[in-house]
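Supplementary Note 3. Input sequence used for the single-chain structure prediction.
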Amino acid sequence: MDITLSLYRKSNGWQDATPPDEDAIVACTEGDRLQLRVRAAEAPTVHMGGDDLAPARLGMVEGQVEAAYEFVIDSWAGRTSLHVAVGERRRRLILDVQPHPGKLGIEAFAAMLNELSERSAALPWGMSPGQQGGRIAGPTAAAIFPAVLDALMPEMLRHLRRFLRDPPIAVRRRDLAPLSMARRPDTQTVRWLANHARTLLALRPGDRGTGEQLAVLPSVEQPITVTNHDHPVTRHLHFQLLRVRQMVDATARRFETLAGSGNWRIDPFVRGYAARVAEQCRQHRAALADALSAPAFRQSPPEPAREGALQALADLPAAAAVQRLAHRLLGAGLQLDVESALEASVKRTYDLYESVVFYRLADAVQAALGPGWTARWSEPAGDVHEEKPHAAVEWQRDGQPAESVRLLYQQTFRAHSGKPNMWRSLSGELRPDYVIVFETDGDCHGWVILDAKYRASRAAVHDALRDLHVYRDALRHRDRRAHAAFIIVPALDQDASAYATADYVAEHAFGAVLSGTDGDGLASCLRVHCSCVMGSQESAVEPSM
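The predicted structure, written as discrete structure tokens, is reproduced below.
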């Protein structure tokens, strides 16, 4: 049953974005509106991430069903996969999402994950790209951040197919055999003859007699070249690939368990995403099993790397690539404690950005307060189903415990009900990403709202600022409105940069703050508004003194 895929990009009409081949990688950009057309004998099912896409149009074309799916790319960098299923037939399309011009790229995304894995001991190694160690506790099962798995496994399988098309077959070994006069003896053969005087004497023509005896040469240790696939490099790759297959199999089982969990607290998106990851792992395992059944691996028993194998890799580029990618997939720390949550490995990219911004905010608040303030971190937020950053950080001025500053992560503002509430909304329940509260003797004298957004286009920034207007108007802490409100973005498109200028932010106590570039604006912005809030408190105290 054939599946025909066609991809189009919206730009003055639908423009052909190159019909994809099997497992094709298609470049696209944040904000692109794409249309995928699927033609098959029956209606297809299309998944992206953890979501099932609904067709925008469904009809019959040339006796086949054609379904059109439209969607917008709203992540700022990275890869995502489209999975198309028609009966038992499967096709996959990988979207390589590039950022808007001037915005962070995939290298910065990897750096962000590294930063996150360094900052939070509560977040598992599986969220990072493999360069940092992580927690290893008790009996463990391997689990990989799906974006890393999605990027590395197809690449490793591609190089593996290249290797199997032309595996090394010339294997030299040493054996005792009648001396071959057509092969020049090597140094080891000469050394062996020097230690075996009787054999050396037997090689002298005068000592061998005549006739048939001339054809009978003594057995000598010498190099023999045999034609098979039992090569040190192939043995090492066999060993590595068996470990990768075991890891992929364990990962599939863990994600299948998460997808089938009956716990109501797990996000349906996470269930769906986990099911896709498990299915993808099963496909990878089948591909590895097929490769390991090739003659090259059947004739080469697995063994750990030896010096000779590692040296030979330099002359075998495809084998070197397989070894390098397998080593990365099997890196130390690529484990999750059996009691840990796999939800951390199926987070949306903006969840990761929210987490790393929390730690950057903590640094910025410390820098804004200056010396003389001591931070106390709370326990990490979340439960056994999802690991998040710390719930809060509280700073107290040395010698003045009554004066404090608190940074809270995802504080809930309850819907208006007429009941007194420290954190309340004038309308429905709201939950901004972060709030910073300034208190003295338990009384709030100012607080700031911050929300992480990692899309950079002007339209996305306008949407984020509209949400910020709602927060600033609706939210109350101890019946006090927020002093200021900001979105935090990794970068901004040129036509949205006005919202991050110092004059705009200072005048309106509102706007965008950059975090993720060399000129990180969090510290300078918070320094201004911390001073403003705390300065107003000092002014209010002075007249009574």
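The chain has a mean pLDDT of 75. The longest helix spans residues 232-259.
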